[in-house]
Amino acid sequence: MGIDLGTCNTLVCVRGEGIVLNEPSVVAVWKGTNKVLQQPDGSLAVGWAAKEMLGKTPGSISAIRPLKDGVISDFEITEALLKYFINKVQGRRFMGGPRVVIAVPSGITAVEKRAVIDSAERAGARRVYLIEEPMAAAIGAGLPVTEATASMIVDIGGGTTEVAILSLADIAQCESVRTAGDDFDEAIINHMKKAYNLMIGEQTSERIKIEIGSAAPVGEETTMEVRGRDMISGLPRKTVVTSEEIRACLQEPISAICETVTRTLERAEPELAADLVDNGITLAGGGALLRGIDKVIADATGLDVRIADDPLTCVARGTATYLESLEEWKSTMESDRDDN
Ligand code: ADP
Ligand code: MG
Asked: Which atom of ligand 1 is nearest to the CA of 312?
């Protein structure tokens, strides 16, 4: 199975079955401990069950996103997350434990990589391989990564944006910034405070972003009714916001992403840069769904920008494809010794 261990969402893709699991990368624990909360039915509060608690947890519980910043903030909680997903998918599908490919943020350290491998092994995986997330995203987006021509992928996730130029099955240039979808949400929260004295939660701001958010003017402008708590009276209140003002408040994180893209381009070898004139840039990750983001990046770079098909599942599909090619390669290398 291939696993996309994302800052926001974890997806599992199995050969022949496609995406079999897609849940938030959230774990609920007893506050101040690493003890994962059990639900009344005995199952662990991980994924959807834990996400529902985000921002609504009573004092004794906290809902944690252990990969929020593209680094592993807590090994034990990350392990609980991986275990939950591997066990949930494993079932009776894999005799003797599955082979697992895990896409990890390109910024994580060797120690963190080791911890991911150990955790997956403890969770029952027979063999564990890691792949850098931008590589998996590019494979999932169908880019010709093994060829002698440059491909560029910009994966805008929740916690991080990963920008990479790939060629000959390797990463030639890569940069990861901690500006992505979460920062769009945060910019909306700050705007609501400043402009309306209204406190809103993360789930509400994400909904505003998805419903009326944009990076550039596209189509008709709209409005949305928003509910929150008045900062002065302390009481619940609602107000109406426009797509124009939301676009304006998103400009800062969006330009940070554009700068990372142009910086990566400036560092590329001239031959690779030349290829990109023809091949352009491909966007992946949930942030690629923000309206007009392709246009803004095209304007900033002068290159063609396209959005990958189904950008939210690119990385997971890429890991499964990578695992298939690993298996093919292995079976040609050791045709009789392999046990599937
Ligand atoms: P990660 O790989 O870091 O887990 P994802 O690629 O799953 O992240 O993307 C999650 C981010 O995409 C979140 O910030 C979410 O709000 C955002 N997102 C999802 N759908 C949309 C959409 N339609 N428009 C804008 N942002 C979106
Ligand atoms: Mg991702």
From this structure: 6
155 Cα–ligand 2 center, Å: 7
Enumerate residues lining ligand 1, CB below 6 A. 6-9, 157-159, 181-182, 206, 209-210, 285-287, 289-290, 312
User: Cβ of 90: how many Cβ atoms within 10 Å?
Assistant: 17
| Whether 107 contacts 160, CB under 8 Å | yes
The CA 181 to ligand 1 mean position distance, Å, reads 6
The predicted pLDDT at position 199 comes to: 98
| pLDDT at res. 72 | 86
What is the Å distance from ligand 2's center to 67 Cα?
A: 11
7, 8, 22: which to mutate for ligand 1, most atoms within 8 A of CB?
8
Q: Tell me, what's the pLDDT at 175?
A: 94
Is residue 40 helix, strand or coil?
Answer: coil
Tokens (6 digits) for 177: 């910034």
Nearest to residue 125, comparing CAs of 84, 90, 166, 161? 90
Q: What is the pTM of this model?
A: 0.94
Give the relative orientation of helices 75-90 and 110-122 as an angle to the nearest 10 degrees.
40
| Nearest one of 35, 39, 34 to 50, comparing CA atoms | 39
Question: Considering every ligand atom, which ligand is closest to the CA of 9?
Answer: 1
Query: Which token pair is 286?
Result: 């949930």
Q: How far is the CA of 233 from the centre of ligand 1 (A)?
A: 33
Listed in sequence order, the residues at least 6 apart from 243 whose beta carbon sits closer than 8 Å to its beta carbon are 212, 213, 214, 221, 222, 223, 224
DSSP state at residue 308: P
Phi/psi at 129 (nearest 5 deg)? -120, 145
pLDDT of residue 339: 47
DSSP 209-247: HHHH-BSS--S---EEEEEEEETTT-SEEEEEEEHHHHH
What's the token pair of residue 340?
């599937």
Residues of the chain with pLDDT under 70: 92, 334-340
Q: Are 101 and 129 in contact (CB under 8 A)?
A: yes
